[in-house]
């Protein structure tokens, strides 16, 4: 059979949630189409191993075009290509963003997406090991837990930030986001809790769910203004998987707009240039946002994660779910204002108790650690367009990192916070020298450093945004039977890591889809 009620493209953070929620009704048949394979590899589940997944079969291994704001550098863009999608290769930080993000979306026309309206969906997904309170919940599919690693270098970072005058924050998803501390993580028993683990694996036996792995969607089939199926390449054959009710694109911020464009939905000029018939002229791919991060790397005499992969630590992880291998690399961090008087933070810090340089691809040959700021509420916008009309060609991606004065000021302000924290006793006691930090501290030098070392924080959003490409119910404008549900629909990138917001959006979308049936 190749006909279903719903065809979901992409088994990532959003797709796994949708597949699980929609098949709760035994009368609804769902096909979940995923280009990658199963998530059985050990490195996927061992938290400290996540950078080892970079540039492997589990990674789309995309890159950006020359980025004009950072000296025309191309940047490496990992994306998960496996069940669980990017939630199977991410750093597991559980962060919702700021109340102001969602209230801002609603004020700009995204009806139904204000903070009080999305909070129930964050809570629905959540099983927080700290228990229930106003913000948090228990009993949901997604396990949220405190870090079991408690790495001493992460502790030193938090102490130094406190010595620099920043307040401790025990819950960045609670009352206020400002402050420093340890992040909560999407981990269960010290292991990764991806959306495949949380949502998909428990329901794989359902008879009304069909998961098609190693199946790459080429385009949406649209007949008479209605999406009726998806053209899918499964190795040697290209076939159409039909959708009686809806096609739902959950292929992520870079691939969902590409699929729309290949289906004739996108900027008319771009489509025409590639010989694609224009069905709907919409600003698909425009409005791309991401968090640009610049890390300072220091040498240390303290044992970093470099030596974590020992047989003893593997045994500790396996038997008790404890030890340094449970470290998600970004264990600690915080939220700051790059200038005074902000109601919501515009800078987030991540701290890695191991060297993290050359976009996470640099060799780790000595003990060290890294931390630094990202531009949390960027004003610059980029775009995803086509490189070729061939479905197997990677999209052309430009984020326009640091192309606005606001974003440049923000990263410089963030670098100053980093230097202030690095100068406190708790860190000077453990730093044995610079590995890669700015030599001089003028604004121009700090900016040049950030432009040279900066990288994606892996949070691309907004290429099929609510209001521009989809309506607040995530239906593609003026096309029946077609929705987009993933990070691409966010009107702006939330102030925080994006996995939890995507899961929230998919939980909400499942309700919207059920209600429309
Ligand atoms: C290295 C890394 C670290 C990160 N760290 C964190 C973190 O610590 N905390 C956090 O909150 N967020 C983090 N993120 C971001 C977060 O994981 C993503 O925002 C989120 O997973 C995006 O969800 P999505 O559903 O939009 O896309 P994805 O999860 O990327 O899912 C898209 C899915 O679609 C599939 N697909 C794409 N094209 C096709 C096609 N043509 N046919 C079939 N299938 C297709 C892909 O293989 C993938 O499985 C990180 C991301 C990365 C890459």
UniProtKB/TrEMBL annotation:
Residues 80-103, 252-266 form the Glucose-methanol-choline oxidoreductase N-terminal domain. Keywords: FAD, Flavoprotein. Its cofactor is FAD. It comes from the Bacteria. Transmembrane segments: none annotated. The keyword Flavoprotein applies. This is GMC family oxidoreductase. Belongs to the GMC oxidoreductase family. InterPro entries: FAD/NAD-bd_sf, GMC_OxRdtase, GMC_OxRdtase_N, GMC_OxRtase_C.
